[in-house]
Amino acid sequence: MSRLVAIDLPGGPAFVDELHRIWDDGDAAFPVDQRLPDTAKRELYTAMRVGDDVESGDALVVATSGSTGTPKGVVLTHDAVAASAIATSKRLGVQSDDHWLACLPLSHVGGLSVVTRALLTGTPLTVLPNFDAAVVDGSEATLVSLVATALTRIDPVRFRTIVLGGSRPPDDRPANCVTTYGMTETGSGVVYDGIPLDGVDIDIGPDGDIRIRAPMLMRCYRDGTSPVDAEGWFPTGDLGEWLSDGRLHVAGRRGDLIITGGENVWTEAVETALADHPAVADVMVRGVDDPEWGQLVEAVIVPVDGPPTLEALRDHVKQHHPAFMAPKRLTVVESLPRTSLGKLRRH
Q: What number of other Cβ atoms are within 10 A of residue 288's Cβ?
């Protein structure tokens, strides 16, 4: 019987060899976050049932980011992993002389999918134990997957294509950057620069809810439950719309929508406006309960030097958006909580 085997190794040739061995034995692999202390690793092994049986055809169990609670284990089959590798490589126009660089955490699908994509397509691959700007800049690779914070630390022109995922992409991203939309449950990005990959169906409900149906979708969670319905649709929990040019615009997580005084406020839209203020080094926007307004728009900022006033921030937002989107509450912090891929932990 096939079983789940943990890979508790840093990125590098040994990790790739171990993944090969696990698959050759007919087992499924669970990459372990190398930043976790031993106690947390043991708890994760129990939650993911490492050592227990898996279904025939299962290739990977990948932990979700756990931004809202205990991480879930997403089960991806060999067929799903292959479908993702083929569709992404076709969209990126990967050639025989290309070379992938994996420098994101391999415990997350954004980093792990670089490795599986290269292995399944026979593309040369270099795997780093972590992101090191100097090593990335000196790499001979032509293709790399990054997050926005890493992008700012390298010379982007040295790569043919940069696949950008994780947090919100910068407005001035280089021309060789391809933005992606996807999640662990979709086996990595399934929408590139607003266009779904081949074989990927996107449905937007009357309330803006995004659903995805695709061959690279998860089989189930490790506990046996599955959010995928009988017709194969996966509810993402995101809201979006089709733009006039046929591209998908993702407004944000339904849970991140702030409803204040009956008006809808998207956190990312306000964050984008506030990030442009010269006194703001980093920013997070979230809703806080309020008996009068239902929710208040709160700006949590890391200042450049001295913190700006709330009124200054409100005036700045009102240059771009209606007044109801301007923050009514300001909190100043030294740093913002983020996942390893740069996503804000708003709650």
A: 14
Could you give all domains of the chain from N- to C-terminal order, each with its CATH number?
A: 4-246 (3.40.50.12780), 254-332 (3.30.300.30)
**Ranges 21-30, 142-151, 249-258, most confident:** 21-30
Spell out the residues 6+ positions from residue 21 whose beta carbon is closer than 8 angstroms to its own: none
For 172, 277, 316, the CA distances from 312, given in Å and listed in that order, are 24, 9, 6
Q: Residue 192 half-sphere exposure, CB side, CA atoms within 13 Å?
A: 20
Q: How confident is the model at residue 68 (pLDDT cuts 50, 70, 90)?
A: very low
Q: How confident is the model at residue 344 (pLDDT cuts 50, 70, 90)?
A: confident
The residues, ordered by sequence, that sit 6+ positions from 345 with a Cβ below 8 Å of its Cβ are 67, 337, 338, 339
- DSSP-derived letter for residue 81 is H
Strand partners, 31: 7
pTM of the predicted protein model: 0.83
